[in-house]
Give the backbone structure.
Amino acid sequence: MSIIRLKALRSLGPSRRCFSVGVQQEDEYVPVAQYPKILDTSYEAKQARKKEAKWKEIKDVKTVEEKQIKLNMPRYYGFKCYVFQEDKVPYNNLNLAQHITKTHLIPTRTLPEFYNDISVDGHLVAIKSQIEEALLIEYEGYKRNNTNLTEKQIEDALSSSIVKQLNRILINNLVEDNSHLLDTQVDYDARIEAFWYAGGMNPPLNVKKYRTGVEWRKHTEDDPVDRAIHYSGSPSVQLRNELPLPPIIPHSEASNPDFKVPFFKYDPRTVGTTTTHKHAANIAGYWPGEKYQFGLMSYHKRGHMLERNFGDEADAKEALHRQGILSSFGWLSAQANMLGFTTFNEITYPMVTQTVITDGQKFSFYLYQMNTILMNGDNYKENPLKNVCWAIPETELFEEIKDGKLVGFNDEVLKSLLKFYKNVPQERLGVNLRPYLAGEKIIANYSDDDKRNWLEREYKYLVSNRPRFKLDYEVYHWEKIYKIDHKTRPIEARRRPFELFVDPWKRTLDDRQPNYIPRKLRPDLPRHKGRYAKEYFP
Amino acid sequence: MSTRIYPLYQRGGPQLRVFLPNFWMKLVRPQQEQPPNVVQFSCSIEMTKFDVKNYLEKIYGVKTVDVRTRIALGKTKRDLVNGYVVKEDDIKYAYAILPKDEVFKFPNLFPKEVEESQKQEEKSLEEAKKIYNQYVDRNKDRPNVPGWFSI
């Protein structure tokens, strides 16, 4: 071997050299030729592969917080979200709510069979008298200062104090025989937010416009577009436990073809939904690392019903169903995110919650089993799994208060409530509850102080959804008229993003300068080094 | 219901003037596909949601559950001679939401039969034009000679 050849070998580096000096192997040849898989090279297939790779990247992130940051990586100013608030129900909204949560709704008069085994008669008498007393005190015993409050605010304040009393009485009385309540956390007025993608709906006009503008994309003009959904709500009381509630129907039953989800093809804005830019925030009323991560039940207010004056009885009922579905799914999907699943990574086991919507007198019960959180892309038709919601329409706990006494107390309502409390969370045998988390699992376990603090700050900032310190980018009216639509100022310097062919809304989260470290605080390094703090984007 | 000022009577002027109302609504075909119970109108920019609701209810007897409005920016165009930019008026769009069991279908103003008969007419017109052009072409070298004067 000549010296030149030796030099060439050395310059190839260690990895390449292995091949050049490779030893001939016995099994190098196979009887039938093996070719790599032939990939579809159409635009759609390539995009699909890219997406899949991204979802896998999110799945492979080890900790909860980093997963959430990773979800947010594509957008610096947040995603354009369709906002669904618990207490703002526009007209004709149930179909949309079912479509975006893939929920099959079962209106029933009684709780499903699952609850038949739970007996509550032993507690009924003792608890009933206490509840009656509490209700009387809440309704007539206090002088409330309601000046400057709207009808909704007055009702919400009353219902949340009633619910707190109810919860206190029920837990105090049941805890003796039901040890799971001893191990249950109670949150008041928690902030619940959830973020997910829902597909299948008609494209908005701007998307249609850019599709028709490009010759080779014209045929995709009417293809459905995914919508980023942001749910926010606030239950007056919610209960959490270390263990999940047992599923009501087995997970295999969730792909039952009898479960029907109405298909909503229109843009959500056509039924009164608004849009805004928000970061993907998933908050279940606790921070990652909390011990009690599984919801048992939640009480919700219904003061917003007083502000709906559409004069349609049937729609009022549907509005409650919409609240029941969205608040249950919103909370469960936020919990799923805390367990390491995301809107792109499917849950591996069903999750259940129990929801009560009440103003103190009228009670509606909802029972929700979340079987899937994949709603994006073609999942609306291809994913066989469906979520199921049992809805018991509103019934009154009592008829009225007369001469300081409750008239017509309805035991059935109290029984349903008791059954919700006595539904015991159980360990899921042979199920890994956090399959997509590995290593540290939460950032609090990182030993690197700098990394932990940086991630903590970044995560809390994202989920706070506070507006950025600097004002958002905007195209001024005069610019649109005199610079974009009509080029009337050709001599001016081109500095604005639309003149530089940049879309500021597509700025990524890490497209920014890291924190500056003053000279004094830097280690002893050359002048131009160590100016900027290290960043830990996943 | 008009805000126009009634002009002072002068001899020779009309005895009575009737002004059209400020409020008007025009049914338009929505660009974004809407659910069957939503109807889109463009309307006078002064009209509020309540005005739209009352307009439909009191004049046409159409009950609405809810009304949503938005104001769309008017189009701008450039003057061809002097190069300045002129802007059309902004348009207010109103979305009247009917009870959900009602279905509104945008009327087809140009049904197939009418369109076909129109096409037929156009075709015969084209034919006539063609024959006339042939006639002109044939006689272009013999000016001032009557048409019947030929071999």
Notes: Chain B is about 25% helix and 20% strand.
